[in-house]
Amino acid sequence: MPCFWRYRGDGVAVAITRNVWQVSGGPITRSYADVFLKYGVALIGPGDAGEWRPELSDDEFEGSYVRRFASEVIPRDIFLLRVSQASIQAVGVVDGGYQYLPQFDDVNGWDLQHARRVHWSRLPDEYKFDELVFGANPPRISKVGNATVLDYAYRFIQSPPVHWQTAPLPKLPEEEPPLDEVPIPLQGLVAQAHDLFSFYWNQQAFGEHPTEDELIAHFVVPLLRALGWQVEQIAIKWKRVDVCVFRSLPRNPENCHLVIEAKRLGAGVEGALEQAKRYLVELGVTRDIVVTDGIRYRMYKAENDFAPEAYANLYRLKSSALKLFEHLRRPLGGE
Q1: pLDDT tens digits, 219-261
Q2: Topology given in CATH for the domain delimited by 184-328
Q3: Separation of CA 121 from chain center
């Protein structure tokens, strides 16, 4: 176990022996680091296989990462929240043992139910080490052996203020119930999402992920049609906007009701917000934005400075998805 020496006031050297781990905050395009910091957790997947137990094979969890996260990490170990190959966003101290938290089954599309509670100290700015200290292709979690990183971590936790290491942990979110009854007009589309989602991810069986245009054709347009929009109200690739929905004709910026920006499956829809906002600036209007990969849909309200407003995952529908469907539904009396 790594060891770091510090000196007490009387000059006696005291050894600090605590493991240091790097844990991924997700890829840049689908980051979930803010979820870690907001709720005082570290999360990894795959979580849909269920709670880890010692008798289960690593094959159940696509390798040894979940086992190590659940069984080798111990309370008071140090976590570094990695956000790139050589950068960290926070330093944390592990609190308690392994937990399986079903409420984290859809974190920006990731199933991350394997959890540890963590006291995090967010850095004012990302700290970038001078070299690729975590390796060229860092895994979702690994024990740190690099001397430079260990020195940084040990010095950080010994430097005041240190009250954050024992402060009360944030309250966890409640587990959201699944949507019991899918609206009738959407039942066929939701069934299609369940049929195809896992298949899309099987590159050996399916091949490359479907393109944005394919997802628009097979999911986005059918969703809009099911929610009452007419064909002539749905423009595809209109003035660089992937999908523009018009409340009335003719098709011009003033009649735009909302815009939809699509991304390839797995690319991270949340990162498309800024691109869609630029398109609205070009159009000279302010409208709601929906970002999607065909399966996941997140809406941002223009009147609230584009704050997240509603979310739905066709593969993993929760009760709150009804809010997104209502926002997307064609208004009564629409032309």
Answers
A1: 999 999 999 999 999 999 999 999 999 999 999 999 999 999 9
A2: tt1808, chain A (3.90.1570)
A3: 20
The string of DSSP letters for 271-284 reads GGHHHHHHHHHHHT
DSSP code at position 110: B
Give the SS3 label for residue 38.
helix
Token look-up 């020496």 returns 5
Q: How do strand 234-238 and strand 141-143 relate by DSSP bridges?
A: unpaired
Is 4-165 assigned to CATH 3.10.590.10? Answer: yes
Strands (E), the chain: 4-7, 13-16, 20-24, 41-44, 78-82, 87-100, 114-128, 141-143, 234-238, 241-246, 256-262, 288-292, 296-301, 307-313
- What digits encode the pLDDT tens for the residues 313-323? 999 999 999 99
CA distance 36 to 94: 12
* The amino acid at 14: V
Strands 78-82 and 20-24: parallel
Domains in the chain: boundaries: 4-165, 184-328
